[in-house]
Design brief:
five-stranded mixed β-sheet; 14 helices; 40% helix
């Protein structure tokens, strides 16, 4: 692939820094749901590290189901004792990173691209990735009347959630591998990339404003419900069909000052993933119930069922795939070559996994030690 001019790289990084803060409601950085989780604090429970609250962020996506299910079943609150689990929901990575940087949240579930951007823009000082959560759950869904094969994507309008987000980078990289040229900033070229919020993409698809979309679940299955066809599952492009879609991040200062609280959240996450994998039907229902609590609307079965099947829940952060995704962003001209050494601190996760009799996870050379 031709070298990207340094000017374009600077423009890409600047554009990512300038992306607007997109939240579910205009209340600070994220939207706080109505239900009061203090009711789940057990009688006689004690605070962890003397903290009144631990502020946890996540997206209203099924790819964040560890957070959805863990909250819905009270698992995080149980592990935090009398320290209240205080939640905020987001629908864009930059807004969650801003919330983390400002201290509005302490720990968050987030995709790889915003985690990479947040780490590199702060020169490695803002966050650490402390665990994995999910793999997969991303598809290219198209209008089958206009696109019948992968080569037909050329010349069409394809939606991605946001400039520089995880799916945007993945699509730009895939398009480049087909030999197609696309300007990463404008999205114009052999394919027109339309940056469209996941909430509005199904309507745009139905109206014919876009011919397809490279999107996460449940948006992909919403498009299928509107008559779309899955042309490509991104997992098919990765070794062992696994790639990181959701990580767990923490403010470095919070990690240093409150390791016991971080351990409690990671213990809850591991317990939740174990329960999800052992009880997929109940877990799917619990995730949907939390989505309904957060947004006021549950997913219909025709969307929920296929979406759930395409996601794997794992404690492994799949660090090698995050490094590859960073290289894809560099190739696309959206990121200067990053130094990701130290982005992972898996010490506490490995401690929790050892207590569960599970094997430690690999930081792929990007750990703090």
């Amino acid at each position: 692939m031709p070298a990207i001019r340094s000017k374009l790289v600077r423009r890409g990084v600047a554009a990512l820094a300038a992306l607007p803060l997109l939240t579910l409601a205009a209340c600070g950085y994220g939207s706080h749901a109505k239900n009061d989780d203090t009711a789940k604090i057990a009688s006689g429970a004690k605070k962890i590290d003397g903290l009144d609250t631990v502020k946890i962020g996540y997206f209203g996506n099924l790819t964040h189901a560890t957070a959805l299910v863990g909250r819905q079943r009270g698992i995080f609150q149980k592990e935090l004792g009398a320290t209240k689990a205080d939640y905020a929901t987001f629908n864009a990575g930059p807004s969650e990173i801003e919330a983390l940087n400002s201290g509005s949240i302490d720990i968050g579930w987030i995709g790889p691209s915003p985690a990479i951007n947040g780490y590199t823009k702060s020169n490695g000082k803002s966050l650490r990735i402390i665990g994995g959560s999910a793999s997969g759950g991303v598809k290219l869904v198209v209008n089958a009347k206009k696109i019948t094969s992968l080569k037909d994507v050329k010349g069409k309008k394809i939606a991605t959630p946001q400039l520089g987000n995880t799916q945007d980078v993945a699509f730009l990289n895939w398009a480049a591998e087909q030999g197609w040229k696309i300007d990463p900033q404008s999205g114009k070229g052999d394919v027109t990339v339309v940056r469209s919020d996941n909430k509005v993409t199904p309507d745009a698809f139905k109206a014919g404003s876009v011919d397809g979309a490279w999107v996460p679940e449940p948006t992909a299955s919403k498009l299928v419900a509107e008559g779309g066809k899955v042309l490509l599952d991104e997992s098919s492009l990765w070794p062992d069909k696994k790639f990181v879609i959701t990580n767990i991040i923490v403010r470095q200062a919070f990690l240093k000052e409150h390791p016991k609280a971080v351990e409690a959240v990671l213990k809850a996450s591991v317990e939740t993933n174990k329960w999800i994998n052992a009880n997929p039907g109940q877990a799917k229902a619990a995730a949907n119930k939390q989505l309904a609590d957060d947004s006021g609307k549950a997913l219909p079965a025709k969307v929920l069922d296929p979406a759930w099947k395409s996601i794997q829940f794992t404690d492994d952060p799949l660090a090698a795939t995050l490094n590859t995704e960073a290289q894809h962003a560099v190739k696309a001209g959206l990121l200067a070559k990053p130094d990701l050494k130290g982005i992972y601190d898996l010490t506490i996760l490995d401690k929790v996994l050892k207590a569960e009799g599970a094997s430690p996870v690999d930081a792929a050379g990007l750990g703090t030690s």
